[in-house]
Design brief:
Blueprint: H1 4-9, H2 12-21, H3 24-32, H4 42-55, E1 60-64, E2 70-71, H5 99-112, E3 114-121, E4 124-136, E5 142-149, H6 154-163, H7 165-169, E6 176-181, E7 187-190, H8 192-198, H9 202-205, H10 219-230, E8 234-235, E9 239-244, E10 250-260, E11 268-275, H11 277-299, E12 303-308, E13 313-316, H12 318-324, H13 332-335, H14 341-357, E14 361-367, E15 376-386, E16 392-401, H15 403-417, H16 427-438, E17 447-454, H17 457-464, H18 466-483, E18 489-494, E19 497-503, H19 508-522, E20 526-528, E21 531-533, E22 537-544, H20 551-578
Antiparallel strand pairs: 1-2, 1-5, 3-4, 4-5, 6-7, 6-11, 8-10, 9-10, 10-11, 12-13, 12-16, 14-15, 15-16, 17-19, 17-22, 18-19, 20-21
């Protein structure tokens, strides 16, 4: 808990007093000095924050958790006029090229309690800032960051701090060395640099052939280079060879032999060696990463295409050619020649827009590979690739064949929308359609709802069987779809009940006419597999004159009207059906 002493110590006035006594930058230098060992105590860190704020009362600041996610700035920190930056995380405001350096500084912060580095912010990529990080979790529960315009020598100073005390005291290992050999490649002299690099003493190397120190896999290359050098005096071509250290490790050297065997003043071969281990390690890391990426690209179940800024194809994987049915091509337009013309035009326009403005695109396109009769559907996601300066240098496209998933999606949509038995809209779908018609604000026009119920349907099931009942419902549903107008919608509410949504019905008379047409059409004789049948239906009508109403209210009115129709005309339809 923070008591009064903490509040007093962290107040702006206390920070100003500390600044008057000690320069803010001086306190910071003391906190961040690479020679300082161990973790800083909370009081020192708090004093450093106050000294820095007193020195830079307008510096932009931010509060974060240990995982880098931004949190509200505690009032107890005691800001001056410092604006508080808002972002999802501390990395979001950092230019991409500096994020690895900032992550390394963050690790140093968590280990030491304070750290700083020079970086560039996304909103001002040309202006470097010195980022000061302080661990205030002990006193204020947050990690605190301040961003101050950088001075000329800040970058080198911060790099030394980040390297730590070992980098300050450890002598640099030389990279250049020299060896003298005779015509048989026996070492006759070595310089001190080589003994430092390899760890062998001069006495351990002199008198031995140089091939003894070279990696066995490089022997053939070393001998070939040596024989070429012996064939002519002067400078031989360079060769890269691994040399064994005394501890068993290997060091990469770029070796240049000078043939002075015919020179009476020298009669030796002078060899210059440059330690290129870091370069080779970096190249090996790049090679390993490229191999890993290639394997990943070939393993993922989608096609990959990389293009340069001019639209030329840089890379494709095998899956891309399987999907497109086209071999490698020189340009993106040629590679996607199998797309239907309209879709190919949309894709190329999206790609051109991305290369010009960096805007990503997600498209669904149709393609028809050679020998295929039906087009297939593919999803293509296009994203920009940036260079070191953040400019768009190309694009990568991911292509997936979604023909089957689209078919399944359509099937699921159909099942969620239509009644499987009658192929009319199901209850939920027809209700949504009615809601869209009657519940618009403001109401857009008149409409009607027809509630249709099949009379004596239970009797059909009982007397002729459920198969006959299902067949009757399918026949009546088909007739109902043909009886209504082109813009009307037919749905099955369940059992033997149907609902017809009729937009743009200008009068009750027209609604009644539609209901009578439905009643007459559905009352025609039906020839079922179980035998002939003369069906009859009751139809209820609810009409809305455009006033605000709800779908449930309209359905309830139509349902009530249907029961009135059943009671009023039921006996008449039964008598007609029985021939009486």
């Amino acid at each position: 808990m923070r008591g009064e002493s903490t509040e007093s110590r962290r107040s702006p006035e206390a920070g100003a007093d500390a600044s008057a006594a000690t320069d803010g930058e001086g306190i910071a230098d003391a906190l961040f000095a690479p020679a300082r060992l161990g973790r800083l105590d909370g009081e020192s860190v708090s004093a450093g924050v106050q000294a820095l704020l007193a020195r830079h009362p307008d510096a932009r600041v931010m509060a974060m958790r240990a995982d880098g996610v931004c949190v509200p700035m505690p009032a107890v920190v005691g800001l001056r006029e410092n604006p508080v930056l808002q972002a999802r995380s501390g990395l979001d405001i950092i230019a991409p090229r500096d994020r690895l350096r900032v992550l390394a500084t963050w690790d140093a912060l968590l280990a030491r309690g304070a750290a700083r580095c020079v970086a560039h912010l996304v909103d001002a990529p040309e202006q470097p800032v010195t980022m000061y990080f302080f661990d205030l979790r002990e006193s204020d529960g947050v990690l605190f960051a301040a961003y101050v315009p950088s001075q000329q020598d800040d970058a080198q100073r911060c790099a030394r701090e980040l390297a730590g005390p070992a980098a300050e005291s450890k002598p640099a290992t030389p990279r250049f060395a020299k060896v003298v050999k005779d015509q048989l490649s026996v070492i006759t002299d070595v310089d001190e640099a080589l003994t430092q690099i390899l760890g062998w003493s001069a006495a351990e190397m002199i008198g031995r052939r140089s091939i003894e120190f070279i990696h066995p896999d490089d022997h053939a290359l070393a001998i070939d280079n040596w024989m070429e050098m012996l064939s002519a005096p002067g400078l031989a071509r360079r060769v890269r060879l691994r040399h064994r250290r005394r501890d068993g490790a290997w060091v990469w050297f770029e070796v240049t032999n000078h043939n002075f065997l015919d020179d009476p003043t020298r009669t030796s071969v002078f060899c210059e060696l440059v330690d290129i281990s870091e370069e080779m390690a970096a190249a090996e890391e790049v090679r390993a990463r490229k191999e890993l990426l290639d394997r990943i690209a070939e393993a993922i179940p989608m096609g990959l295409l990389q293009v340069d800024a001019a639209g030329g194809v840089v890379y494709t994987n095998d899956r891309l050619h399987e999907i497109l049915g086209v071999g490698p091509a020189a340009s993106a337009e040629e590679q996607f020649a199998c797309l239907l013309e309209d879709d190919r035009g949309r894709l190329m326009a999206a790609l051109e827009d991305l290369l010009a403005h960096g805007r990503a695109a997600d498209l669904e396109v149709r393609l028809c590979a050679s020998g295929e009769r039906k087009p297939r559907l593919c999803a293509i996601n296009v994203r920009a690739l940036s260079d070191g300066e953040g400019a768009t240098a190309g694009a990568i496209a991911c292509i997936a064949d979604i023909t089957e998933s689209a078919r399944m999606r359509e099937e699921l949509t159909r099942r969620a929308t239509f009644d499987e038995l009658t192929e009319c809209y199901n209850r939920a779908a027809i209700t949504r359609l009615l809601e869209s018609v009657v519940e618009e604000d403001p109401p857009v026009g008149c409409c009607a709802a027809l509630f249709v119920d099949v009379d004596r349907f239970k009797g059909v099931n009982d007397e002729l069987g459920h198969a006959a009942g299902d067949e009757l419902l399918r026949v009546l549903a088909g007739r109902l779809r043909h009886a209504v107008r082109g813009g009307d919608h037919v749905g099955r509410l369940g059992g033997d009940e149907f609902l017809v949504v009729c937009p743009q019905v200008d009068s009750e008379e027209l609604a009644a006419t539609l209901a009578e047409r439905v009643r007459r059409t559905l009352g025609e004789p039906v020839s079922l597999a179980a035998g002939p049948l003369v069906p009859s239906v009751s139809v209820g009508v609810a009409w809305s004159a455009g006033e605000a109403t709800s779908a449930s209210e309209l359905i309830a009115r139509a349902d009530s009207s249907m029961y009135d129709d059943k009671h009023e005309h039921g006996h008449e339809r039964a008598a007609a059906r029985n021939g009486g």
